[in-house]
Each structure stands twice: as C-alpha cells, then as structure tokens.
C-alpha cells in the first residue's frame, strides 16, 4: 500500500467512473437549485406548538417556559428524585444558568483545547449522569429536532451518554423546516462545519426485536426540550 | 320493469374492436362472450378482428424481446385500422398501451405505430366507465363479491375505482372489502411456472384474505389472476367461485360455460 | 456458488414452510407498511419530492467523477485520508492493514450494508481483529452467526425468545425473553465497548461533496457513539451515495426516513466532518474515508444505472409479495427484495445471482413506493432480457419462445396450435405432464382448452362475413 500505488489506483478508479458517466449525456440531468420546502410556516407560539407536536410524535417532550419561575417549575418536575445532574454551560440561553445552579447541577469545567494531546478521558460525571443539560444551536419545528454541534464536544457527550437529556432553547432558536436548519447551521460556522453536527429528535429507540418499539437503546431514555423566552 | 342502462346514448355512437386475449380465446371464451354481450347491450358495435392472437406479454416479461416483438408486430398489423380497442384484461391492455412503446423504442417504423395504438387501447371496465360514462348496467348477481385489483390494471393503467363502481351498480350484489386487495395474487405470468411454490404461497395469502372477508365470489378484470387463483382454490377444495367482471355485468344467467369450467 | 433458480426455490420453500418465520416476516413487513402509511398525510408534496429526488440522484450519477473528487478534496483539506477501493478485497485489506498498524484488536461498528457486501467482518476475524456490531439487530445477527434479513430490520426473523436464548448463551446467564431486559443487557455491554474501542467503523447514508460531510441516519444512537468516541474513525462509502450540497439533504432525508421507518426524522442524524477540528475537544482524531466501487462503475452509464439512485430505505421489500413469502435469506445475497433482485446480479460478477431478476411477479408495488421512483419492473425485465441476449436463458425456454412466436405471429398458425393443444391435452395427463407448465400443475389445477375457442363461437354467432 505504497503512496505511489495508491495514487495510480486512485487515478484508475476515477478514470473508470469518468468513462462510465461519459457514456451518457451529462446534460441530460441538470442540477436544480436545492429544493427547499418554504411556505414561511408558523411563527412564534404556533411554531412552538408545531415543534411540540413533532417532538411528541418522536417520543420526546417539549415544554414552554416564559420566565424563570416557569423554568424552575418544569425543571423541578423533570429532575425530581434524580441527583446526578451535569450541565454544559456554554450554549445555554441567557439567564438560565442561575436557575440550573439552584438545582445543584455540576458544571463541566471548560476544557483546554489541544487537539494534538492524548485522548482526554471522559469524566465520570458524564458517564454516570442521570440528567444531562445542554443548550443547542437550533430547534427544528417540523421534525421535533434539536441541533447540537461538537463545539467543543462535551455537550455532545452529555447528549449521547446521559439517561435523561434536557435541552434549553430560546424560542428565537426555533426554525420551521430541515431546510432552514441546513442554511442556518453552516452560516454559524463560516470556517467550516464542526466535526459532528447532530440532529436529535426524541429519545434513543430500537424496534429491532419483534418490531416492538423500545426506548433507550444506546442514548437517553428521555429527551426534554424547554423552550424559553428571554 | 325494463332497466335501461345509463350511458346508452353515448354508447350508440361507439364502435370497438374487441381484443379478446389469448387466454380468453383458448381457455375462457365465455368471458369474451360476456364482454361482447355487455357492450352490445349498451348499443356499442363490437367487431372481432379475426387475425388476432396474443399481445406478446409472456415473451416480453421473460426477456425474449425479439419473440415478443414478432407477436406484437402481428398485433399492431391486425389492429392498425381499428378505432377503440377493448380488452377484458388489464394486463394485456397495459402491455399494448405501456410496454409496446418501450419494446419498439428507437424503431423507425414500429415505434410510431405502437404509440399511435397506445392511445386507443382500453381495458373493459375503464372503457365502460371512463369512455361511456356507464355505472349501472342493470345486471343482477346475488352474493358476496370480493374484488381483486390486478397489478397491471391498478398500477399500470391506474384503474382502481371503475370496476368497483360497476359492481356497486349490480343488483343483489354485496361488494365486500377484501383486505390488501391491491396485493399481487402471485401469478406474474412465467413467474407462476418458474417459481411455482412461491407463486402458490402468495395465492394462499390472497385466499386467506378472501376467506376472512366472507366472499362467496371473487372477481377481477384479468383471467391471468383468476385462472391462477381458481386453480389454487380448486386444488385446495375451496368453494369460492371466480368470475370475470364481464360475467357479472352480463347477468348471472346465460353465461355459456359459467364459472364451473376449469 | 451460483445462485440458480432451483437453489432459490429450495431456500424459498424452506422459508415458506417455516411457520415462525412466516409470522415474523408478516409481522415486520406489515408493521413497516403501516408506519409508512401513517406518516404519509404529514408529507405534503410527496410526488413532487420523489420526482425532484430522482432528478437530483440522476444528476449526481451523471457527474459522479466530479462530485467524488470534490468530496475527496474536502475530506483531505480537513486532514482526513481518502482511499479509493476498486473492489471488496482492496477495501478490507486497507482496513486490516490500518488496524494492524494501529494495533487495533477490538473495534465497534455500525450497521452498514456496504460492509456486508464486502464481507468485512469475516475478513477482520480471519486477521485476528474483532468487530462488534452495535446496532441491536446487527448485534443479534452477529451473535447468532447469521446475516441480516432486511435492510432496516436485520433481525426481524428472530423471535424475542430466540434472541433471549442467543443472549443467554453468549453471556452465560439466563436472560428472560423481554425486549426491555434484552436491550438493557445490550446497552450495558456495548456502552463499555464504545468507551474502550480504539477504532470505529461506519457506513454512510450520504456524503456531501460540498463540505466533505458524511451523514449517518440512526435511531439507537450507536452510530453517533461509534463515530464520536473512538479516536480512529473509518467510514466506507458506496460511491453512488455522494450528494452535491448540504442543502440537498432536506429533500433526501424527507424521503428516506418516512419511507424506511415511517418517522418524520430518525432520532439521530449525524453530520460528520471528521477528524475533529481545532476548536473541538472530542471526536475522532484520525479519519479514513474508503470510497468503494466494487462493480458500481460497470452499472453506471448502462441501462441499469437507475438502481444506483437507491437510498436503501427498504420500502420495496415491505410491499413485495415475493419478499413477504420468502424473507431476506432466501435471496442468497446481501441485497434482497426488489432492490436486491436488481442490484445483486449487477454487483457481483463472480457470484452468479442470475435467478434473482426472476424472483418477481412484476407487480410494480415496489416502484409505487420507491422514494426515488426506480422503475423496478422495467429494470427486472431488462435484466431478464440481457440474460437472453447473453445466451444465459435455458435452451428449452429459448426454443419454446421461438416456436411460440412463430406460431402466434400468424393467425392460421395460431389457430392450428390451439387445435393441436386440444387434441393432445388428454395425452398430457390433462396438463399435468405438459413440460412448460409442470411448475404450475404441482399446486394448481390447470384449465383444459375450451372445446370451442372464442373465435369459433364468434363466427358461429356472427357469421364469418363480419370478421
């Protein structure tokens, strides 16, 4: 597998493909503009209701907190009886950290960014967390999704490994369609997409045994999205 | 009381050439007679071009396109000067309408002829409802009847409601809902011979659905499906009858050999 | 090796007589059909989307060389490695050598049909490398020593009792036949594997040329753990899965997911642009993308190129009357159902899958549900035609069709053949010994020729003059 051999193989591979596609007229199929289903869609509270409906369809739960008091109440219900809480504070909507701290959340410390370093172990506070709390880049109403990116990456670990994932999202972070998200997300990262952008729609599930739906295959068993107005 | 079928005025001006199909000609002539009787009762002038044989579908589906084209060219010659062509088979009508243009694609002579023919071909129930606007033929057929959607009729020609509308117009007939009526019966032409045991298993599922809906008669617009299901039903000693839609519409009496045949 | 009609028939008959399997197939396919039917009212403009996706996929194939090179550039810009594998051997060899160089013994893997296609797990095992399947269905299939039986429901052929037995044997402890318990055991076991594995292997549902991004569509969450936790990530991409732009994903996901599972979107859709960037603390530090040809370039540009637009949703399997009776394993190939009946014989020149294009009634239900409008009946007929052209059709069959077309392309010869059949009918044991239709008569009664044909009756009725 010398570098030289690879280059020859690569060129031959591409040449094979090229000669195959040149056999047909390339012009026969023009590239249309990306199809985006945009009809404006609902705004404000109606957008939240669409989001809630779609997240519930996916097995998750959406909550609306129009103020700190309501947020406290919702968090109280979700967290009740669970004590290992971990949160990543960087992407949370403004003013929510204070409320979370009242619940005894353990804040993950900011990590030193050193990609050349040896692998940093995953802290037990994440692997053993009952409830993991993060923000998100966006919420997608028509699919009931939240979008998280590996910037820096601890947020995604929480989203992947905790038993209950709670996402706090500002209402202005809700978009209507997947297409909106595919425009908004790259715009947030002009220097290129992060290594991992995850669309998460409800709890982890599997229907692999007798087609019976079971929740919590490898990821969280509950997903709560609390939509906040600032 | 004389029950005048609706759409008769429209029908009086119509002339059709009957493509009876090889299966009906050789094995089930009573179906052809029933179709003729229904059309004539509506005042349609029916013509039977005697040169006709088969549409060529068995060879086409099996990949023997040279042989299919040989038979198809004969078909085109026989029907070239006909007006509307009516076939009591969704499958054969679909072959002429949808597959002839593909079979002769690129052929300077025959592609054009195939396309010209394509617009004039109708399946029997499609012709009655879409072209003549008929719903009620004044027929009578006592019993619980299930309708099976033949694949080429449903997915090839897009005919779903027409046969049902005609059945709803039949006196004393109770149209029962056949679960998964759109699922293939397992015939598939040469498939039924090549992979016979799979074909039978698929037929058995259709039979199970039939028994569940309590039908005493199964009807469809294709003798291919009906021959297959009839053969399986009789091998398994089931008493459900199989009749072509045309036989029901022609009235329960006077069907020359009836459904006892086979 | 060859997969001939009698082999296919034998496996199918075994499947048909297995009542547990029949119940399982029926249950799984009807569930998946129902789920799909239920989501459809939410999917506005479905037909238009199918048309647009078909055009997009055909455009991509027509420019596949350009998009693949663009993808390569993007992946390399980010510091990933790209390996072009012309066949299964090159792909597996690359992974084995990489694993040996990095001293990898155990690795985690997501469900991927392309790795099934190249027989990756077997090759790895032979070289002392142990891949663990992390999709629950694939994990079950792996522990049972079998192969997946459905594109998206790989273990549907196992009852929960059978799964419990497999797990009990593997873990050496009695595990009850409860889905939740079984899943809990798998979750715990596999969590440890994810955290410890030095290497993860994934397939890819799509790869975006514009950004060098791979797309993984999963429900369990194993895909994102496999692609995020181990320091080395290897992804294998069937080369036809490339997509021009990130924005095209909306259309493709909106078609793929509802068709596959009836969800609006799967629980997890991961957009992977590895390796990890300078602002990232997590994610693989080393990334290898293997772009696989393995027969695809010989399909491209030919009459069957449409099959390369397939999104692997599995909807065609669930509506196929043949698949519903014989299940996945009877096909004897990695890809099954209508899409497999087309793709398998085209992909593998060595293993002869010539029987598969015949495993269809041409009912067209597959084409009707296909999210990218693949014209399955036309492709299946085309494959049969190319077998005839290559002289692969049985001699007897060719002879019968030649004779038949000679007789039936002429009205008098046709009439003669009808008389002949009637005369010889009793001699043929009323059809049971008729060689062409013996496959028919074993399980169905054959109607005898009518004593008088329709044309006889017509002439009698109307007189010859009118005819």
Automatic annotation (TrEMBL), chain B:
<dbReference type="GO" id="GO:0005829">
    <property type="term" value="C:cytosol"/>
</dbReference>
<dbReference type="Pfam" id="PF02754">
    <property type="entry name" value="CCG"/>
</dbReference>
<dbReference type="InterPro" id="IPR004017">
    <property type="entry name" value="Cys_rich_dom"/>
</dbReference>
<dbReference type="GO" id="GO:0016491">
    <property type="term" value="F:oxidoreductase activity"/>
</dbReference>
<feature type="domain" description="Cysteine-rich">
    <location>
        <begin position="16"/>
        <end position="96"/>
    </location>
</feature>
<protein>
    <submittedName>
        <fullName>(Fe-S)-binding protein</fullName>
    </submittedName>
</protein>
<feature type="domain" description="Cysteine-rich">
    <location>
        <begin position="145"/>
        <end position="230"/>
    </location>
</feature>
Automatic annotation (TrEMBL), chain C:
<keyword id="KW-0408">Iron</keyword>
<dbReference type="Pfam" id="PF11870">
    <property type="entry name" value="LutB_C"/>
</dbReference>
<keyword id="KW-0677">Repeat</keyword>
<dbReference type="InterPro" id="IPR037171">
    <property type="entry name" value="NagB/RpiA_transferase-like"/>
</dbReference>
<protein>
    <submittedName>
        <fullName>Iron-sulfur cluster-binding protein</fullName>
    </submittedName>
</protein>
<dbReference type="Pfam" id="PF13183">
    <property type="entry name" value="Fer4_8"/>
</dbReference>
<dbReference type="InterPro" id="IPR009051">
    <property type="entry name" value="Helical_ferredxn"/>
</dbReference>
<dbReference type="InterPro" id="IPR017896">
    <property type="entry name" value="4Fe4S_Fe-S-bd"/>
</dbReference>
<keyword id="KW-0479">Metal-binding</keyword>
<dbReference type="GO" id="GO:0006089">
    <property type="term" value="P:lactate metabolic process"/>
</dbReference>
<dbReference type="InterPro" id="IPR024185">
    <property type="entry name" value="FTHF_cligase-like_sf"/>
</dbReference>
<dbReference type="Pfam" id="PF02589">
    <property type="entry name" value="LUD_dom"/>
</dbReference>
<keyword id="KW-0249">Electron transport</keyword>
<dbReference type="GO" id="GO:0046872">
    <property type="term" value="F:metal ion binding"/>
</dbReference>
<keyword id="KW-0813">Transport</keyword>
<dbReference type="InterPro" id="IPR004452">
    <property type="entry name" value="LutB/LldF"/>
</dbReference>
<dbReference type="GO" id="GO:0051539">
    <property type="term" value="F:4 iron, 4 sulfur cluster binding"/>
</dbReference>
<keyword id="KW-0411">Iron-sulfur</keyword>
<dbReference type="InterPro" id="IPR024569">
    <property type="entry name" value="LutB_C"/>
</dbReference>
<feature type="domain" description="4Fe-4S ferredoxin-type">
    <location>
        <begin position="301"/>
        <end position="331"/>
    </location>
</feature>
<dbReference type="InterPro" id="IPR003741">
    <property type="entry name" value="LUD_dom"/>
</dbReference>
<keyword id="KW-0004">4Fe-4S</keyword>
């Amino acid at each position: 597998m010398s570098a030289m051999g690879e280059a020859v193989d690569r060129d031959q591979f591409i040449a094979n493909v090229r000669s195959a596609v040149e056999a047909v007229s390339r012009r026969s199929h023009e590239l249309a503009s990306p199809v985006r289903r945009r009809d404006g869609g609902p705004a404000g509270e109606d957008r939240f209701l669409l989001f809630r409906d779609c997240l519930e369809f996916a097995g998750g739960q959406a909550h609306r907190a129009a103020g700190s008091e309501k947020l406290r109440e919702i968090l109280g219900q979700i967290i009740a009886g669970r004590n290992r809480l971990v949160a990543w504070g960087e992407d949370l909507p403004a003013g929510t950290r204070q409320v979370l701290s009242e619940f005894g959340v353990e804040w993950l410390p900011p990590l030193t960014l050193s990609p050349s370093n040896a692998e940093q172990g995953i802290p037990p506070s994440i692997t053993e967390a009952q409830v993991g709390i993060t923000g998100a880049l966006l919420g997608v109403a028509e699919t009931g999704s939240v979008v998280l990116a590996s910037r820096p990456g601890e947020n995604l670990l929480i989203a992947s490994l905790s038993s209950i994932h709670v996402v706090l999202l500002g209402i202005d972070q809700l978009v209507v369609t997947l297409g909106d998200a595919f425009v908004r997300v790259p715009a947030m990262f002009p220097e290129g997409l992060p290594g991992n952008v995850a669309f998460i729609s409800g709890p982890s599930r599997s229907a692999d045994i007798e087609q019976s739906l079971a929740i919590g295959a490898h990821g969280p068993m509950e997903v709560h999205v609390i939509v906040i107005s600032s | 009381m004389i029950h005048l079928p609706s759409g008769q005025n429209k029908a009086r001006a119509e002339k059709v050439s009957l493509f009876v199909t090889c299966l009906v000609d050789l094995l089930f002539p009573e179906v052809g007679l029933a179709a003729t009787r229904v059309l004539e009762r509506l005042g349609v002038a029916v013509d039977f071009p005697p040169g006709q044989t088969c549409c060529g579908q068995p060879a086409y589906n099996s990949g023997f396109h040279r042989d299919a084209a040989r038979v198809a060219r004969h078909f085109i010659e026989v029907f070239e000067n006909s007006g509307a062509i009516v076939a009591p088979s969704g499958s054969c009508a679909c072959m002429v309408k949808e597959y002839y243009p593909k079979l002769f694609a690129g052929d300077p002579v025959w592609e054009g002829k195939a396309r010209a023919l394509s617009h004039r071909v109708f399946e029997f129930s499609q012709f009655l409802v879409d072209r003549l606007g008929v719903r009620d033929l004044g027929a009578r057929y006592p019993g619980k009847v299930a309708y099976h959607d033949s694949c080429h009729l449903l997915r090839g020609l897009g005919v779903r409601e027409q046969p049902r509308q005609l059945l709803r117009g039949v006196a004393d007939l109770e149209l029962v809902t056949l679960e998964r009526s759109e699922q293939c019966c397992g015939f598939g032409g040469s498939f039924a011979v090549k992979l016979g045991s799979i074909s039978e298993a698929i037929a058995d599922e259709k039979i199970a659905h039939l028994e569940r809906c309590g039908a005493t008669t199964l009807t469809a617009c294709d003798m291919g499906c009906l021959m297959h299901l009839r053969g399986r039903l009789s091998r398994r000693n089931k008493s459900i009858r199989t009749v072509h839609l045309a036989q029901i519409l022609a009235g329960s009496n006077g069907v020359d050999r009836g459904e006892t045949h086979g | 090796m060859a997969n001939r009609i009698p082999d296919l028939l034998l496996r199918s008959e075994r499947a048909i007589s297995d009542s547990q399997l029949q119940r399982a197939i029926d249950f799984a396919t009807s569930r998946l059909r129902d789920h799909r039917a239920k989501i459809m009212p939410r999917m506005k403009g479905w037909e238009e989307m199918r048309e647009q996706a078909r055009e997009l996929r055909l455009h991509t194939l027509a420019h596949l060389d350009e998009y693949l090179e663009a993808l390569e550039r993007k992946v390399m810009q980010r510091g990933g490695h790209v390996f072009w594998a012309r066949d299964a051997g090159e792909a597996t060899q690359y992974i084995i050598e990489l694993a040996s160089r990095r001293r990898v013994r155990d690795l985690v893997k997501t469900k991927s049909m392309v790795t099934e296609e190249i027989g990756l797990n077997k090759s790895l095992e032979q070289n002392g490398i142990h891949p663990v399947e992390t999709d629950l269905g694939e994990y079950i299939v792996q522990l049972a020593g079998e192969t997946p039986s459905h594109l998206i429901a790989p273990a549907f052929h196992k009852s929960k009792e059978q799964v419990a037995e497999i797990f009990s044997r593997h873990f050496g402890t009695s595990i009850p036949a409860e889905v939740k318990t079984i899943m809990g055991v798998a979750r715990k076991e596999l969590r440890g594997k994810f955290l410890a594995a030095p290497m993860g292997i994934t397939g890819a549902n799509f790869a975006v040329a514009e950004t060098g991004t791979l797309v993984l569509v999963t429900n369990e969450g194993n895909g994102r753990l496999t692609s995020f936790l181990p320091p080395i990530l290897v992804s294998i991409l069937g080369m036809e899965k490339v997509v021009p732009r990130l924005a095209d994903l909306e259309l493709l996901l909106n078609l793929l997911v509802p068709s596959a599972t009836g969800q609006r979107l799967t629980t997890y859709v991961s957009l992977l642009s590895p390796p990890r960037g300078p602002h990232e603390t997590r994610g693989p530090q080393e990334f290898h993308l293997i772009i696989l040809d393995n027969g695809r370039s010989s399909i491209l540009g030919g009459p069957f190129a449409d099959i390369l637009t397939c999104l692997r949703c599995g909807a065609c399997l669930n509506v196929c009357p043949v698949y519903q009776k014989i299940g996945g394993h009877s096909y004897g190939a990695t890809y099954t159902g209508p899409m497999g009946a087309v793709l398998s014989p085209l992909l593998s020149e060595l293993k002869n899958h010539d029987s598969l294009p015949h495993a269809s009634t041409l009912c067209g239900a597959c084409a009707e549900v296909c999210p990218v409008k693949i014209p399955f009946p036309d492709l299946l007929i085309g494959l049969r035609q190319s077998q005839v052209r290559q002289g692969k059709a049985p001699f007897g069959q060719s002879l019968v069709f030649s004779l038949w077309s000679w007789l039936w392309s002429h009205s008098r010869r046709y009439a003669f053949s009808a008389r002949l059949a009637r005369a010889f009918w009793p001699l043929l044991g009323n059809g049971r010994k008729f060689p062409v239709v013996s496959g028919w008569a074993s399980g169905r009664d054959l109607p005898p020729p009518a004593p008088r044909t329709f044309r006889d009756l017509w002439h009698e009725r109307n007189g010859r003059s009118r005819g």
